[in-house]
């Protein structure tokens, strides 16, 4: 059995095995110790438990308060976690805000993980500033989950990923189903990369109606994937994976070209709204890709509207402001998608050059009649009107629903009351009727 296990902060640890910042063990030491532990013969049924820890919201602290505060925070977190470990446990910083713990034949793993999470999330006072982070924990057990070090670390990583996906600030034990899910995810990533080149993606369009004139004025794009085995997949089925893996850049550029190509065949009055991923928006080549697509298909900038999430408003203000201004300089319209349920404020609408606000569907969907939701919608619509920013509501399904939206002061709508998303070919008739009143009958009701 291994008897000389690392005590966090032990002075006899060689420099080559010590993390420069936190002074605990580094990844090199951790991996060596894990190999030793799993290779050591045991006459009992003793188990080795691996915990992988990753801080929640650490990047936000680093970005907003600076690396010096971030470094101090890492050291404070290290001290708190170390206070819960025994002298037979191994604790190391694996890199960035990721840590690892090796436990030996302990039966209080869940209690330990709970204590660590509770301790880490307590407020830190650094340079007079209150700082808060959380921690997610993945747990894997040798030999139950894996028989070798690298596989055990992968299992703990998968459990950690699940903890992050489950809402963060929690711990999750590895389950075999996670590996199956990870394999499926990897296969889908490979297939998605091929889908762009093999023309399996398709853009559909959802008409947008101006409430006042009751005329079609624009189109919102809906991205679909015609998968050869899985069938037609909507954006929610693959866009999150595309964003996570970076494939969204290629997917987004393909969609941009496809939309501009189709728009070149439509009347000049038609504005097409295309959703843009935060990763794509922050890409160094995004602006050039937009300009090139417009030039290639002879599209004027005012005919393209780019939808970004409200989370964009919370990122580096100068970078976002500069990008928005560059886009506006070539006539591009900018809209905020699903506004009203995140943490961006109404005041930020004033700070950024916006043309449209798409109100979060949860605030306006049929059946939502709460005073709070109605008040939020009316406030957004009123501020938008005073700033010359149009407001669009998605998911309008009935004349009664439309009447309520009208009373709330919103300026435009979309939904199955008028048309579901359709292909470019099916859209030809609707686009040719651009100046015709919409066929749906609106109500003159004045009650809510």
Automatic annotation (TrEMBL):
This is Diguanylate cyclase (GGDEF)-like protein. InterPro entries: Biofilm_reg_signaling, EAL_dom, EAL_sf, GGDEF_dom, Nucleotide_cyclase, Rev_trsase/Diguanyl_cyclase. It holds the Pfam family EAL. Transmembrane segments: none annotated. Residues 185-435 form the EAL domain. One of its GO terms (molecular function) is catalytic activity. Residues 46-176 form the GGDEF domain. SMART domains: EAL (SM00052), GGDEF (SM00267).
């Amino acid at each position: 059995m291994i008897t000389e296990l690392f005590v966090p902060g032990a002075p006899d640890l060689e420099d080559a095995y010590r993390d420069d910042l936190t002074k605990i063990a580094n990844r090199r030491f951790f991996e060596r110790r894990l190999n030793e532990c799993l290779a050591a013969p045991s006459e009992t049924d003793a188990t080795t438990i691996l915990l992988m820890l990753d801080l929640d919201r650490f990047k936000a602290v680093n970005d907003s308060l600076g690396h010096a505060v971030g470094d101090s925070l890492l050291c404070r977190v290290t001290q708190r976690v170390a206070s819960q470990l025994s002298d037979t446990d191994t604790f190391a910083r694996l890199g960035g805000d990721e840590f690892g713990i090796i436990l030996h034949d302990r039966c209080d793993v869940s209690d330990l993980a709970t204590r660590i999470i509770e301790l880490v999330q307590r407020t830190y006072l650094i340079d007079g500033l209150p700082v808060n982070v959380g921690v997610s924990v993945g747990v894997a057990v040798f030999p139950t989950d894996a028989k070798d070090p690298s596989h055990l670390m992968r299992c703990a990583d998968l459990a950690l990923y699940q903890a992050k996906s489950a809402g963060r600030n929690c711990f999750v034990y590895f389950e075999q189903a996670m590996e199956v899910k990870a394999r499926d995810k990897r296969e889908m990533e490979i297939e998605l990369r091929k889908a762009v080149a093999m023309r399996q993606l398709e853009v559909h369009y959802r008409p947008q109606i101006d409430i006042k004139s009751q005329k079609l004025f624009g189109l919102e794009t809906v991205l679909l994937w015609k998968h050869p085995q899985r069938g037609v997949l909507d954006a929610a089925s693959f866009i999150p994976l595309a964003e996570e893996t970076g494939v969204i850049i290629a997917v987004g550029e393909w969609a941009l070209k496809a939309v501009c190509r189709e728009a070149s065949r439509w009347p000049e009055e038609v504005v097409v709204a295309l959703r843009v991923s935060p990763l794509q928006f922050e890409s160094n080549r995004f602006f050039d890709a937009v300009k090139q697509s417009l030039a290639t298909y002879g599209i004027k900038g005012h005919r393209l509207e780019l939808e970004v999430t409200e989370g964009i408003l919370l990122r580096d203000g100068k970078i976002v402001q500069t990008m928005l201004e560059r886009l506006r300089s070539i006539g591009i319209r900018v809209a905020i998608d699903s506004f009203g349920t995140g943490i961006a404020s109404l005041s930020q609408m004033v700070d950024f050059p916006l043309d449209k606000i798409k109100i979060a569907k949860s605030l306006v969907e049929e059946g939502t009649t709460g005073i709070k939701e109605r008040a939020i919608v009316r406030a957004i619509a009123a501020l938008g009107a005073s700033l010359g920013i149009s407001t669009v509501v998605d998911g309008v399904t009935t004349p009664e629903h439309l009447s309520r939206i009208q009373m709330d002061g919103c300026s435009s709508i979309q939904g199955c009351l008028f048309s579901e998303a359709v292909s470019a070919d099916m859209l030809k008739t609707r686009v040719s009727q651009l100046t015709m009143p919409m066929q749906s009958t609106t109500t003159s009701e004045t009650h809510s």
